[in-house]
Amino acid sequence: MTEEDIEKENAAITKAYKELLKVSYTTLTDDDKKLIRKAFEVALDGHKNQRRKSGEAYIFHPIAVAKIVAQEIGLDATSIASALLHDVVEDSPDYEIEDIERLFGKTVATIVAGLTKISSLSKEQDMDVSLQAENFRKMLLTLNDDVRVIIIKIADRLHNMQTMDSMRTDKQEKIASETLYIYAPLAHRIGLYNIKTQLEDLGLKYTEPDVYYDILHKIKESKEEQDLYIAQFSDVIKRTLDREELNYTIKGRPKSIFSIRRKMIKQGVTFDEVYDKFAIRIIYKSDAANEKFLAWKIYSIVTDHFRPNPIRLRDWISSPKTTGYEALHITVMGPKGRWVEVQIRSERMDEIAEKGYAAHYKYKQVGEKEDSLEDWINKLQEALENPETNAVDFVEQFKLNLYSKEIFVFTPAGELKSLPKGATPIDFAFSIHTEVGMKTRGAKVNGKLVPLSYELKSGDQVSILTSETAKPTANWLDYATTARSRSKIKSALREDKKRIGEDGKELLKRKLKQLKITLNEASVNELVNYFKLKTSLDLFYRVGIGTIDNAMLKDFAASRSNTLMNFIKSKISRKPTHHVTKEELEKEEVTSNYDLLVFGKEEEKLDYKLSSCCNPIPGDDVFGFLTVSEGIKVHKKNCPNALSLQSNYAYRIMPAKWIDSSQQEFLATIVITGIDHIGLVNDVTKIISENMHVNMKSISFESHDGIFSGKINVIVKNNTLLKKLLEKLRKINGIDKVTRV
Fold first, then answer.
1. Which is the catalytic residue, given 91, 145, 503, 665?
2. Confidence band of 572 (pLDDT split at 50, 70, 90)
3. Could you confirm whether 221 is annotated as catalytic?
4. Per the database entry, which stretches of residues form a coiled coil (predicted)?
């Protein structure tokens, strides 16, 4: 570079820095400016020899990130300084975290350390999905250090997305996909709607450039017509608003390219057929006391002039979203017979909608109850620290909770609870308290008993019926939708398996003793191999539920004595067998023997082929794809072709999962006939309910001239358990016949 170029660049750097100070959303004191100046000087020194892929000096990147943090998110001087320093420790050998703490204090050092930690995670090349998910989970754990870590990281990602043009195409696609997968949902959840929109649009620009530029071009073409329409709409209501002496502004806001694209796909329409390509926003000035009253006053003025769509009213003023978002949304029939979304919000609400977290804190009153973001971080922390959760499941579940629309339901005492759309009474129970969830026996919605699979709706009043003897069952996982309830149920089921495993171990000890075999490491190892299992606890669990019964153990003992002589003869030439260690024996997990693949909600057994592109193995998360010529082909959920198959051929996708055939539950119908007497029905139900591993689904009895017949539907894990039940029922006094249909 020539001297003249260097001078020009230095002038541009100084200009960028001055702009940063000008655009800050919060008022900067002299001390704040000194802190930012010092951070700028350290960043300038730390990045002095670095250039970006585009060739420009690296320092422009931290300044741009700090500018987003200051202007678009509106964070404080500490955050602006941290944003300027976010890459210094990682990129410069001259600075360590200790230096940052010495120069800027503990808070800045904590934030920079968190950002450095995240950067080193994402540097790993060609990560598989599970590793990426695990890293994302670790990244979220830094929320506990300081929520500003994540916010600055989102700003960093936004600037990287804005300046990706000089990168290789494959790198652009990777970063853009990750942005759509992780960062856009996260920005949405923290309430950074503007940034979320930019991230989504930029994500689309690099993942589907043709689509992006096509919609962008069409939006530009129709802008004039849109402005004219907004002016027409505004003219109609302005006179009335002015007569009421309201202080307001009316703006038109175009929908993002990404959301227009989503609508086109979801509704199967063209760009011209998307009717609400923009929304009209009425922003009014108000003091805190009249804010709500004025919102409804404006609502009534708008609906006096334009007919509202009654099912499209969204009142987020009475019940703000968990992100802190407040507004009234109405869809009205505007001029020329077109539906228009009208958003009514005060200046304070508008600022919270634009700036999210930062504005929330600006308006937070002293003594106000816990902020929803803090509440969310606490809930998130609980989910993150659950070591049992598989990382990919966690990310999927987390994203589900991030993007889900909210419903609001009432507790019996009239308290309002927010839950994701699609939530069930099980989710509600766990949101009240873990203990309530664990002891759930049933639920009432608006005073009526409902199944636990019932989908709650906004406005429902939910009351949970509990019982000391109730406990989670595997079926609950089919009903639970929130990350919290699912992780708690899974932990409880594991505990239950462990308990059955412990009982099974004692039972096995007694049974082996009768067969003259001692229960020790060697015999357990032999049994595990004989029954083709994975761990010792797997063996104990199966003995506990009766899948491995006396007859099977006798067969084992017989095969053992037959092979004993051969074993002695070949001992010299054989490799030593692997003996189960004490640690393995006491391992606290019962692994499942996933040996059976089932399809659809009904869990049917169908013919299938395993696809060669991802070679799924038992236990993998999979789905079935109905091919034209080869029947069902099974792919892993993280197969490289999964995304394109799921988005282009959604109608051919079949849910599939590996299950443990020994733990599958089956419906069996038992028919009983006999001589009727008082207490007979009680005897029958008592025997069924005492049987730990049998679940009664339905029961019906008829009595006719002293003869009675009954039909019982039960759910059992296997034939052995059913046979035992039939034997016990036959022994009841008065029973003549017990048959399985």
1. 91
2. very low
3. no
4. none
